[in-house]
Predict the 3D structure of the following.
Amino acid sequence: MNTVDIRQKLHQYIETAQDKKVKAIFAMVEEEIEETSDHWKDEKFVAELERRETAYKIGHAKIFTIDQAVGKARSAVKKVKNK
């Protein structure tokens, strides 16, 4: 079973599981969730966002339209598939 299928099964299970089972699952992963979900407490992360925002505002950031971004993503996927 691939990761996408596992995620879907877990999501479906959690949606209908008894409250005590949902709480038990959460207790097992709570610490990891807290570590990965609060990026705003990470000073380096916030500083990088601020640096990028400033670069964008003064016109020094390289930006792409959505079509350009999608095109680059598709090209990258094709390269990976061709390897």
In short: The radius of gyration is 20 Å.
